[in-house]
Design the sequence.
């Protein structure tokens, strides 16, 4: 029979692996008697682990949630995964950078030497995408409130801060009425948090930026969940950020031929289709929100351009050419 300390660790590991354990199965897995299992469960309770007994013909045990966080047990892969996740927490946009750093220090201190060495050699530098302004942070309280509403399937009432232009009047800046929505999913996209919800006032699906949401208490009545368009929330959100109109495509898509190697173009085109036409020539199919935006995106390649189509893309190039010519001829005041 293993020593008591070893049995307790094995028992705790099993209790964390699944929700309910029959007492006889625990005894079989640990190679001990059901009476010893009961004694070891009592020892775990004395250490602060909320192990509850299950009634029924077979009986059993469950590791329940407690008022305080007791010591946790991780295997090697879980410990490494946790350390990596804490190191890249600065890119989540959840405003938990300081807490993540303190958690990583705590986890590292209790790791065995072999794991501590692996963590110390795995230094991850989390680099956020460059932007004109830093990505807005969302407080943990707001994220928890949104998540709770999603889990409870309760109508959410919230204030949604508008993005007012500088020339907005006082009347435009007046506080809008609270929004009402059925929250379905809390998602992240590009270091920002979004709430996917059915807007009750507009009777349509919406994606709300979490950093602009101020939840109101209490929440509303429970609702029956709806199915997001297409059935998959990931595809729905991706489509919304691509100007999704039901066709699964960008609203503007064009085709050009560039005097550049396909390998050079594909390195800088995440969502376009690049086809090699020769050693220094390729075909590019790309989409965007608008025709001028598409022309500008293609123009960033330092190469001659042949527009295959459509005509709207040719017009957009002509429009930008006039604008750029005016900018080049403009004398500073």
Sequence:
């Amino acid at each position: 029979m293993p020593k008591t300390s070893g049995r307790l660790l094995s028992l705790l590991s099993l209790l964390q692996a699944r929700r309910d354990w029959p007492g006889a199965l625990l005894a079989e897995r640990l190679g001990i008697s059901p009476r010893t299992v009961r004694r070891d469960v009592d020892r775990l309770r004395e250490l602060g682990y909320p192990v509850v007994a299950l009634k029924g013909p077979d009986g059993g045990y469950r590791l329940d949630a407690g008022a305080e966080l007791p010591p946790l047990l991780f295997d090697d892969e879980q410990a490494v995964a946790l350390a990596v996740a804490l190191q890249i927490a600065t890119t989540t946009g959840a405003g938990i950078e300081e807490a993540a750093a303190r958690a990583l220090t705590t986890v590292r201190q209790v790791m065995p030497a072999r794991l501590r060495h692996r963590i110390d050699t795995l230094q991850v530098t989390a680099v956020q995408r460059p932007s004109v302004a830093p990505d807005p942070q969302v407080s943990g309280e707001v994220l928890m409130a949104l998540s709770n509403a999603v889990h409870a399937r309760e109508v959410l009432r919230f204030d949604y801060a508008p993005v007012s232009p500088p020339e907005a009047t006082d009347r435009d800046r007046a506080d809008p009425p609270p929004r009402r929505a059925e929250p379905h999913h809390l998602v992240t996209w590009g270091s920002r948090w979004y709430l996917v919800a059915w807007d009750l006032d507009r009777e349509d699906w919406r994606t709300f930026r979490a950093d602009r949401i101020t939840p109101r208490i209490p929440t509303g009545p429970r609702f029956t969940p709806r199915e997001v368009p297409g059935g998959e929330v990931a595809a729905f959100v991706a489509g919304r950020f691509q100007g999704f109109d039901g066709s699964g495509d960008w609203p503007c898509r064009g085709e050009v031929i560039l005097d550049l190697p396909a390998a050079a173009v594909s390195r800088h085109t995440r969502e376009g289709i690049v086809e090699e036409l020769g050693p220094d020539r390729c075909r590019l199919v790309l989409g965007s929100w608008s025709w001028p935006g598409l022309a500008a995106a293609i123009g960033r390649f330092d190469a001659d351009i042949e527009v295959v189509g459509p005509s709207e893309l040719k017009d957009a190039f002509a429009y930008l050419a006039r604008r750029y010519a005016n900018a080049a001829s403009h004398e500073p005041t």
Q: What stands out?
A: Residues 311-329 form the longest helix (19 residues). Residues 164-168 have pLDDT under 50 and may be disordered. The radius of gyration is 28 Å. The longest strand covers residues 179-189.
